[in-house]
Specification:
It contains 9 helices and 12 strands. The chain is α/β, with parallel strands linked by helices. It has a 6-stranded mixed β-sheet with strand order 6-7-8-3-9-10, sandwiched between helices. A 4-stranded antiparallel β-sheet has the order 2-1-4-5, with helices on one face. A two-stranded antiparallel sheet has the order 11-12.
Length: 259
């Protein structure tokens, strides 16, 4: 018996400008539980829109979304926030929170109406900061952080949120090599703890470094999905990006090159 996907998308359609220009075009996809899945495709493929639709920030014009086997529409906003976390590529922060205060916001879905954070919430916030070696930044205003520092802090907030599903939009786009390695290692650690991770990227090397499952997107459609070892081929990547691509091997690891 096949295991129920943790996320299932059934014939989704979405457009920002009415029904005639679909950003997501009759898109169907199953995400297996407990995997790191990379959604790979060129800019404009609809990757970010897809994450926002999964989280309920955007409503599809057609189709169905199921999370842990239940219709997304059946979850309240709080219940959905307890199931799915999101790390954006960039986020406007209207208040001058310290890093600690900002990461503590990850506990909000678990608080009751007008409840104050508990000792456990503070403990989980400290643990999230320690896991990413961000303790030295915890009293810094978030508005004073670099782009890479802010990206790491957003991941810490998502870790504190403790959701079984974590969505990340181009998570390594602002990171230097050191932080990129630390970030990807944390994704592997979370996956080892049973968290299902889905991240978008237009960089095949990032997908290779972290993912086991791959979704190839172009023009709002899923071209293919499956184990990364089966999909990371010159033919499939060339069709995804619309340019000739080669896949070589270096020390038994695939390397993606423009032809």
């Amino acid at each position: 018996m096949t295991e129920t996907p943790i996320i299932s998308l059934d014939h989704l359609r979405f457009s920002y400008d009415g029904p005639h220009v679909d950003v997501l075009n009759d898109l169907s996809l199953d995400i297996p539980a407990g995997t790191i899945t990379a959604i790979l495709g060129p800019n404009g493929a609809g990757k970010t829109t897809l994450l926002h639709v999964i989280l309920g920030l955007l409503q599809p014009h057609a189709g169905q979304i199921y999370i842990e086997g239940q219709p997304q529409a059946g979850y309240s906003r709080t219940e959905l926030s307890q199931k799915v976390g999101l790390v954006l590529q960039a986020e406007h922060t209207p208040f001058n929170f310290t890093v600690f205060e900002y990461v503590l916001l990850g506990r909000t879905p678990h608080l009751g109406m007008l409840s104050m954070p508990s000792n456990n919430d503070y403990r989980l916030t400290r643990q999230a900061l320690e896991a990413l070696e961000l303790e030295s930044l915890q009293q810094r205003p978030i508005t004073e952080l670099s782009g890479g520092e802010r990206q790491m802090v957003m991941l810490a907030r998502a870790i504190a949120q403790q959701t079984p599903i974590l969505l990340l939009d181009e998570p390594t786009s602002h990171l230097d090599l050191s932080n990129k390695g630390r970030f990807l290692q944390m994704l592997r650690t979370l996956a080892g703890q049973g968290v299902t991770i889905i991240f978008t990227t237009h960089e095949p090397e990032v997908a290779v470094a972290a993912a086991r499952y791959l979704v190839l997107m172009r023009a709002g459609q899923v071209l293919d999905s499956g184990p990364l070892t089966q999909l990371l081929t010159a033919e499939k990547l060339s069709a995804t990006y619309g340019v000739p691509i080669r896949v070589a091997r270096l020390e038994d690891r695939p390397v993606v090159l423009l032809s």
